[in-house]
Amino acid sequence: MTETVGGSAKKTAARAAAKPAALKVQRVYTTEGRHPYDEVTWERRDVVMTNWRDGSVNFEQRGVEFPEFWSVNATNIVTSKYFRGAVGSDKREQSLRQLIDRVVKTYVGAGKEHGYFGSEQDAEIFEHELTYMLLHQVFSFNSPVWFNVGTSSPQQVSACFILAVDDTMESILNWYREEGLIFKGGSGAGLNLSRIRSSKELLSSGGTASGPVSFMRGADASAGTIKSGGATRRAAKMVVLDVDHPDVVEFIETKAREEDKIRALRDAGFDMDLGGADIVSVQYQNANNSIRVSDEFMHAYEGGGDFGLRARQTGEVIERVDAKELFGKLAKAAWECADPGIQYDDTINDWHTCPESGRITASNPCSEYMHLDNSSCNLASLNLMKFLGDDGRFDAVTFAKAVELIITAMDISICFADFPTEPIADTTRKFRQLGIGYANLGALLMATGHAYDSEGGRALAATITSLMTGVSYRRSAELAGIVGAYDGYKRNATAHQRVMRKHAAANDLIRTYHANDAAVHKVSTEAWQQALEIGAKNGWRNAQASVLAPTGTIGLMMDCDTTGIEPDLALVKFKKLVGGGSMQIVNQTVPRALKALGYQEEQIEAIVEFIGEHGHVVDAPGLRREHYEVFDCAMGERSIAPMGHVRMMAATQPFLSGAISKTVNMPETATVEDVEEIYYQGWKLGLKALAIYRDNCKVGQPLSAGKSAKAEEKKTAETVVEYRPVRKRLPKKRPSQTVSFTVGGAEGYLHAGSYPDNGLGEIFVKLGKQGSTLAGVMDAFSMSISVGLQYGIPLEFYVSKFQNLRFEPAGMTDDPDVRIATSVLDYLFRRLALDYLPYDKRAQLGIFTADERSAQVAGEYGAPSSDVDLEGLRGSVEAAPAVEAAVETAAPKQVGSSTELLELHLGKAADAPLCMTCGTKMRPAGSCYLCEGCGSTSGCS
């Protein structure tokens, strides 16, 4: 091993003698003599992914091999996104084994080559442990690893990049070029434009400078062209400007003015929805914008003073502005269009491990990676739910061991990684920035009975985050003793050690509330003590270790219920079924949370059934009001307050090398003053970055027609067209049929009348020998359903509501197509579906004739399908099988994602873009968006 820092031969030999020979690896999950692949049951599946809107096939690969416990969605996403080789060719990967082996064996080979392992046995254990954790969805590397490692492509492993631009035309044009190369590779980049002279300053030739905002137009057009030319998602980029830049007001209002343009064009009849034909005429839409504020500015804001805007080259103050007024403009713009976000410069640089090598001026597009200009970060995230035992205890010891293995693998990747530019390659190899993080925090908190916005929830999140970073730096210090500290460490040793002490001191200040967070805190305290001790002797291998990323696609790969640090989106979710079709399910964490709160099985079943019907817990039978907060989500009937999100970020920020990718959701009724307060509190609470999103603030969103009158105040008078339902009555003479039936011994008759074109228009139900009261109720019910059908309510809507309804009489029937019914209404609407709905609609509802079920078993319809999600039920046996099976209901046909399902429950549109690959509405993931259907993201991870 070569010495990276100069010194005499004698000192080098002495230091080498003091180092351990190499890394010793211990088994955590695996058993000696048994490969992880031999411990799971494998099965073959067909992956056929369609566009939800038009039914066209986007991707097809049949006969792929996955473990039986992997969900349909995870299988689809990994097969379509990460398997390499041309589809249909012999070189195409066919099995998850091939994918994992391609990556893991590359890592192990590089670890051997660069002297990480003490023996072949250590390398083998490391290989088996990584394989096990990836196979069992304990963690995942970021997407570029799966795309590139072990292939003939450049071995790019980083998803996050920070660029630099100077005040020269050559540098500005190079900025366009470098961004284009990064976008082409499917990643994202951020940079700070504050070095560029403002439009209020002179050029050396005597003319006036264009200013950074003008150059943003060219970069935005370039990003939009690259996106539309090949990618299936928007380019991911971040543009930052310092608050003391003379063009700061123009930068702040840039995107808000574009929203005014969108409104004007929309009102003139142009298609201004995201992805619409005319949206390309709008500028600055391919980037997230952020303002960098200093402590000096924030103190001026607090005190109501003025603040100086400075020339870029001389640093002299060329204009003084009212700090409160400027901050108000920032809040107003964010209120109007969610941009700009805010970054707190002095806080960021106070936690900077390498200040002697340069300040941190920018972030990646999702705001979690913050370090030197022209650098990159390799990410990986752990699935926190994999460390929660059946007894409700978080296994801190196993979590720590997993972190050690993962951070080692991440560091090895830098040894063989390729980079898009030479400056990025040079900086990353010198400072070896890593970004370990986690997903499923929201699910973990709910499953352990903690409200997301609670002291107990924040304490558990803080201790886990502290443990993760403490163990990462401890292992980094151990690696420094084996393969050397990062090249820039000697110059920055004092600063790096200071930041490590700040992390450890913050850990000591954590207040614990329950056995779980107390146990984790004990382990994290020990980890920080060891990290400081070993690091003081060896230094550290990595300039930074941890971030909290959006975990979009890889979160789906790990079958996580929640992404990154986010709470659950809603209590009901959309789920794909084996062989096609879909259903609505109540989150599997809900029964587990109820059990942790002390509820009995009968109570849990009743509460879960209520949630399945209503989508929330308000007035759920038997649920105590003090437990409502445990089930609060990002959206829905009881949504988490904006400050609840901010407080959770503040609880975890002191234990992260980087920052947190997260958007604080605010209701449409929030005011500009509310946004201003959120941005102010972010600074007071020690965050590094913050972004907000106010519901319905953007015009260019799909399904945005139902905006409030407030949003339409600027519109000129126009003709108002009022749409009302029209009743289509049946003709005097119409076709009909009568079906006799028996349910649980109760006899009855169903009369169904149709329109001449075969559409169902009326029903009458007669239950024999059931008494005049019930007969009257059934007559009234029949008339209500009939009138609804005649006013255009689809039959499939009624079927989705009444099938699986449970009450007596119930049981066996005399109908060969519906052998068992949970009630008379369950039978009636299944029968009506079989008689009047086409096959594709019935398949969505899980209703088939006896012949169709037989044909499916025989393979006539391709992959086996069923009205019960057997694969999903197998995977959730430990969670509460009886409860989950009872609340699975067919998803309405017009629903293609959890966001769209939530829209039905809320009765209003959610502000999220449609996926450009499969057409479904995406869901928030950190400060980006994620498609549940195909795994596409609007960010860089």
Automatic annotation (TrEMBL):
Its EC number is 1.17.4.1. Residues 158-693 form the Ribonucleotide reductase large subunit C-terminal domain. It holds the Pfam family Ribonuc_red_2_N. InterPro entries: RdRp_reductase_class-2, RNR_2_N, RNR_lg_C, RNR_NrdJ/NrdZ, TSCPD_dom. Residues 731-835 form the TSCPD domain. One of its GO terms (molecular function) is ribonucleoside-diphosphate reductase activity, thioredoxin disulfide as acceptor. It comes from the Bacteria. Its cofactor is adenosylcob(III)alamin. It is an enzyme of class 1 (oxidoreductase). It catalyses: a 2'-deoxyribonucleoside 5'-diphosphate + [thioredoxin]-disulfide + H2O = a ribonucleoside 5'-diphosphate + [thioredoxin]-dithiol. Keywords: Cobalamin, Cobalt, Disulfide bond, DNA synthesis, Nucleotide-binding, Oxidoreductase. Residues 47-137 form the Ribonucleotide reductase class II vitamin B12-dependent N-terminal domain. Belongs to the ribonucleoside diphosphate reductase class-2 family. NCBIfam families: NrdJ_Z (TIGR02504), PRK06556.1 (NF005122). Catalyzes the reduction of ribonucleotides to deoxyribonucleotides. May function to provide a pool of deoxyribonucleotide precursors for DNA repair during oxygen limitation and/or for immediate growth after restoration of oxygen. This is Vitamin B12-dependent ribonucleotide reductase.
